[in-house]
Amino acid sequence: MRAVLVVGTGLIGASVGLALKAGGFTGEIAGWDASAAELAEALRRGAIDRALESREAVLETDAEVVVLATPVLPILDWMERLAPRLKSNQLVTDVGSTKGEIAMQARRLFGQPERAAFLPGHPMAGKESGGAAQAEATLFENAVWLFTPSAGEPQSGDVWREAVRSFGARVREIDPQQHDEVCAWVSHLPQMLSTAISALLEDEFAADTEAMAAVQAIGGRALREITRLGCSPYSMWRDIALTNTEAIAATLWALEQRLAYVRENLRTPELRDEFARANRFRTAPRG
Amino acid sequence: MRAVLVVGTGLIGASVGLALKAGGFTGEIAGWDASAAELAEALRRGAIDRALESREAVLETDAEVVVLATPVLPILDWMERLAPRLKSNQLVTDVGSTKGEIAMQARRLFGQPERAAFLPGHPMAGKESGGAAQAEATLFENAVWLFTPSAGEPQSGDVWREAVRSFGARVREIDPQQHDEVCAWVSHLPQMLSTAISALLEDEFAADTEAMAAVQAIGGRALREITRLGCSPYSMWRDIALTNTEAIAATLWALEQRLAYVRENLRTPELRDEFARANRFRTAPRG
């Protein structure tokens, strides 16, 4: 791996650049972002060595590894554009938050004779606010980095897995469908919940300055944790909602039913059993 | 304040004892707990100087300040028993999580001629697991300690406010009704939500070892935060659910409706507006 191109130099893309350098990578890291400000910030922070000047320059890259680090819909778009242009010695990987559509499109467009290889990936790391300014070389330390390779995956993916391990991340392979279902539970549901409860509190209290002051003064760690993701950007989550709609809707529906059950049992012994089940989830030894 | 009696030497009661000593209080701290193990642990940790031997000994106390640090129903019970036994130079205060019923009962039983004074209180501090073993002298540092005094409150409350300030807590006065409504939003709803989602995940994945392993391996900070309170003890929350049922049910109902709204709009521009409202809650400068 002599050269890497990072497409999308926001929080994750710029952190990949910083982590590559911290891990001893001495090749060139080029970057491109639709936002000139994000691109400039990534360059200023040393996350990339060189900023490409146009979308066309991305398609002409001869980097051994191209990392697509945009939201999911632009990833799908870049895949369409890159597939006919790249060469068979090149590897494309991504960091998209949903994997079903990306893995399907990877099978359709990549890994064929004369075409580049594609390794779908997803680092379970991030922050509630995005942008290159928030990037850190240590963002992936101890995080799980999921890959959803298809059956005919070429050897070249191992180069990137090795890089990911050098970031301090733990590599784990998973089926794309299972990825999207599990992520609906452990990531997408918490996000939608945090958004819903933050928006609800805003509607409930924003017009009453005194009550909002009380909410913010009295609210402690529980409130902070449960609303922390309320500042997540729509731009990223729109694509997740669009590409994993059914699985997310199923988890939301299940939670709605469960909250209704708790509400109807606030004064019955069923609440005790519900606490016992929750206690087991948090404390039962697994595996 | 020469002597203090702590009734209920679990996490909060034992932390009160440790905080009193850390703040320079040199009088005697006596303690009582229905659990002999909790009482012994509080004594072993130095949170109390002396363990009372019976419930009757509690009723015979001549401590200037009696701190009721049990769940809400036993607090109400101790109030009934203590009111006819204590003297007018004594102050009773509590740390109960709901204040409506306690404040009402305080007006009925205390603050009359020949009777002790009562100052209803509620420190916004805690941990997801209880017990004297978890107690810390610094538990209340930078926490808000709410008081819901009634109109005819005697001066003696100021002694306890002073002690609370010496713990590093910020004293704030609030109407008991408003206390219970705000706490339903910032504390009780997050707890019921964390319990519901933890119980839901337990039901969904406990029978499938491989899927549960994936959930726990892939789940990061968002999952941990949103399920952290899943290990809270029913024993404490039963009393909160029983004494603030209506307000908690109203917040649960509102959240159910809001989650349904998000679910129905995963693919529409309404989701953008919901994220914008949530962003405002997290970032808008307030009064």
List the SSEs and their pairings.
2 copies of one chain form a homodimer.
Chain A: E1 3-7, H1 11-22, E2 28-32, H2 36-44, E3 50-51, H3 55-59, E4 65-68, H4 72-82, E5 91-94, H5 100-109, E6 117-119, E7 121-123, E8 144-147, H6 157-166, E9 170-173, H7 176-205, H8 209-218, H9 221-227, H10 234-243, H11 245-264, H12 270-283
Parallel strand pairs in A: 1-2, 1-4, 2-3, 4-5, 5-6, 8-9
Antiparallel strand pairs in A: 7-8
Helix pairs in contact in A: 4-5, 7-11
Q: What does this 3D model show about the protein?
A:
The structure is a homodimer of 287-residue chains. The first copy, chain A, is globular and about 65 Å long. Chain A has two domains: 3-174, NAD(P)-binding Rossmann-like Domain (Rossmann fold, 3-Layer(aba) Sandwich); 178-283, 6-phosphogluconate dehydrogenase C-terminal like domain (6-phosphogluconate dehydrogenase C-terminal fold, Orthogonal Bundle), CATH 1.10.3660. In chain A, strand 5 (91-94), helix 5 and strand 6 form a beta-alpha-beta unit. The first copy, chain A, has twelve helices and nine strands. Chain A has helices at residues 11-22, 36-44, 55-59, 72-82, 100-109, 157-166, 176-205, 209-218, 221-227, 234-243, 245-264, 270-283, and strands at 3-7, 28-32, 50-51, 65-68, 91-94, 117-119, 121-123, 144-147, 170-173. The first copy, chain A, is an alpha/beta fold and 287 residues long. Chains A and B meet through helix 7, helix 8, helix 9, helix 10 and helix 11 of A and helix 7, helix 8, helix 9, helix 10 and helix 11 of B.
